[in-house]
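Bumping with the actual sequence this time:
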Amino acid sequence: MAEEEEVIWDWQPAAIALVEEDAAGQIKLTAEGVSLLSGYDYPVAVVCLAGCEGRLRVFEGLAGCEPNSLPGVPPQTQGIYFLGSADFMRSGRCLIVLNLHVDLQRDTANASAIWDVALVLSSLVVYAHDGMLSNPTARITDTLDVIHSLQADCSTEELKALLPSFLWVTNAASPVATAAADFKAFAWPFELPQSAFDLSKLDHIGWYRHGPPSAAVATCRDRVLHGARVKTMFGTDLTGEMLLALVDGTLSNLHHDGRAMDLLGAWNHVVSLKCDALAAAAMATYQDVMGDSVTEVPPMELDMFDKLHADVAQVATSMYSSQARFKKAPARRTHKLKLSNQLVDAYVAQRAALRAHSETYCRAVAATHLVACVETDDTSSSFSEMVARFVDAYRAAARGPAADHVLASVVVADVVACFGQREAAAKAAWTDAKLGDERTALQAAYEAKQAALVAHFQQEAAQLRETVAAEQRMWTMAQAAKQSRDNIDSHEARRAADELAAAQATMLALEERERKAHAAAAAAHTQTERVEAQMAQLRETMASEAAARAALVESLAESIRNEKRLEASLANDESATAAATADLTKQLRTLGEEKMMLQMQLNDVLLKVSALPASLQAHVLSHNIDATIEFGDALSSYMAS
């Protein structure tokens, strides 16, 4: 765990100014700051404290130091001050702490310039403030101008790695702040949501309210001490010397007309200084190897010298290219071209020196062997034999590119002079007769030698043509092989650079994915708790639904039983109704038969009544059944008629 690592703090007795505003209002690097940062010859992480007056006490709580252990700063001097450093015993990391002493609320050119320098120096800015804010301070929003100026040349991930991360702290001394509050990752304390949206382009760690020791302080301590990344520029970890060059380049490219600082120009200045040293080291390596090869005895042959130059120049160029892997900086290509031109100039000068050294050496060899050939020569040998012995001895001992040139000059001058001396001595010793015999012998020998030499030279010419043609073919093949090797090396270097860039981009993407995964894990944890609560509520709902479902099933069973009883009752009623219907039908049929019988009887009665007299018919057919008619009266009436 990172919390178990031992951290040793080294606080300065008094703050040391790195960048300050002098009496003339100029911003400059101090001699103490230059000496201090030059001592860090390894990459460092830089934490810059900014904001309210209580920022030092806030950082004491974050670092877990004793109260008032951080040195104070004279309030009348604006600038950036070195407070101390921390060494991590297990990982070997180093973290330095700076104090930005400037009124960030004032809209002045020097305040803006010092803030720009702080952005360049820092890998993490801890900004402390008293109370809540509706909007960020003007200096924070100035950082957005820097982002807008770099968006055309840098990707989003490069911008986040280029500019420092931010940690916002609300001081507990404010009446608005509370004594204990949780750390809120990726959150800003501004009341207006648009402000937080505008600052979303910055690499923001989070915000918390500083108070007594709490879980939030422990979390932020881990993020500040163990999470502060080494200051980097386009994938290059910056040492103290490179930080100094970056600040110097920033101060040299400051704009006082409201424009954003030229961060790429400052980076190009750093790369220029670094590449200058790398090119000088590569050139020194070339000089160390090639300097001794020019003066060695015997001198080196020209083809070996050219091969050695090509190999050493390739090593020097590769050494420069492997170390000068700086992105977004034209100075890297400029110094590489300058190194190539220096290598060509050095090669021309050393080749001339090698030729001069070879000429001196070969002239000494020629003088030594010519004297030896003349002193050991007898009168019986011919001059051509003496010259042949001299040439053989010279070619066996001579070395270097000037060997043939020196031989030609010696043969033309010294050997011809020697021949003249021998000819004068021979003329003085010979008589006319001997001269005639000698002339005849010489003429015969000359003709024989001439014929032999002509045949020999013709043969040598044919062999020379074949040799030249073979060497020409070999040279063409060598040039093609060299071009192929150069193309392969160039393609391999470009492929290696592309793979390295892809690996770095993949690492950045993985880091961003890890950060997003942590955020997603926190969101998933919250979502899990919410889902668990919903599941408990769902279980209660399911239990109540199960009870209602059981009651519904019981009610449904009772309804089915009632339905079966009613169906049975209905069947019984239908049977009784059918029987009653059959009985009524039978009664109706009987009633019909009786009605027909009564009708027939009625018809018979009516027929019989019709035969009676009218008075009797009236009596018989009268509706007044209650009236009493005497039969005698009716009969008297019938008889009277």
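The tokens above came from a reply further down the thread. Confidence is low (pLDDT under 50) at residues 174-180.
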